[in-house]
Amino acid sequence: MQKPRKRKQAELHPLPQSRTKPARATICLNKPTNDPYPTHPRPTPEECRAVLDDLLVLHGFPQEFAKYRRQRPTSPDDETHGFPKPEPLDGDAQESVLDGLVKTVLSQNTTEVNSLRAFDSLKSAFPTWEDVLSAESKCIENAIRCGGLAPTKASCIKNILSCLLEKKGKLCLEYLRDLSVDEIKAELSQFKGIGPKTVACVLMFHLQQDDFPVDTHVFEIAKAIGWVPALADRNKTYLHLNKMIPNELKFDLNCLLYTHGKLCHRCTKRVGKQQRKESHESSCPLLNYCKNSESETS
Ligand SMILES: [Zn+2]
Questions:
Q1: Measured between alpha carbons, how far is 284 from 214 in angstroms, rounded to an integer?
Q2: Stretches in the chain below the pLDDT threshold 50
Q3: How many angstroms does the Cα of residue 264 sit away from the middle of ligand 1?
């Protein structure tokens, strides 16, 4: 007798029910794992593999990421596509997650060389993270000056350290190694100044997880070759590509696309829009994929 009555009530008052807080909270929680472009069919796994192979022939595997590649767990896929994982080298000691996070913060808006110089300078001025936490902000800024945006980065680093000490009682992020990707994202996003790109970089480089960060280079290429709609923003591009790119290809493809974006100016500038004068990049293999995207637009 009770069942029909309940149904009737729900039909009569559908709005208050769908507007209750728990329902909205559920929607928000699910959002990050949803693909914002579920009907956008690219990139297919085959296309990811083809782009990876083309870029590998063109650039080889970029040296700056070789150390991180050696730290990754071996997958059976490495042998299948003729790109076996090299043996670890002597200088490959695994960095702490906290070192990795601070390195990633220091790498924002600067070159690899300058950010590494800033990290080394910070480490030689303050051998432990406790030393950094108790230092004057100005002294931290001076130590990382060569990496640019010193005041912002110094306050971000100090904030991470003081939050960690307050919440965990020690300056250590190794506990993240035992958490799931979603849990790690939730933990790292709590720190002020840590956005999705920094989190994705820490996941990929320092926690050996399969994630696909979208930096400027990757973002421009993804739009140029039609892997996301032309008007996509960076965060939606991140969500879509993470859905579409097979996990086992994410690390290699990301390093290669990033490197390609830095070296090649053809595919990051849309056709007809200020093309570079030099034409020695006319052999860019990604131009083949641009054509596909143009025929699909409309
Ligand atoms: Zn190119």
A1: 21
A2: 1-32, 270-280, 294-298
A3: 5
Distance from Cα 160 to the centre of ligand 1, integer Å: 37
Expressed in angstroms and rounded, the spacing between residue 277 Cα and the centre of ligand 1 is 14
Q: List, for residues 91-128, the tens digit of each pLDDT value.
A: 667 789 999 999 999 999 998 899 999 999 999 999 99
Instruction: State in Å: Cα 11 to ligand 1 middle.
Output: 56
At position 121, the amino acid (one-letter code) is: S
CB atoms within 10 A of CB 275: 13
Name the active-site residue from 103, 153, 185, 197.
Answer: 197
User: Under DSSP, is residue 220 helix (H, G, I), strand (E, B) or coil?
Assistant: helix
Q: Is 291 a catalytic residue?
A: no
Cα of 166 from ligand 1 centre, angstroms: 47
The position carrying tokens 């320092």 is 206
Which domains are delineated in the chain?
38-73+210-298 (1.10.1670.10), 94-207 (1.10.340.30)
Tokens matching residue 172: 């250590």
Residues at Cβ < 5 Å from ligand 1 ion: 264, 266-267, 284, 286
- % of the chain at pLDDT higher than 90: 66
CA distances from 294 to 261, 271, 277 (A): 20, 10, 23
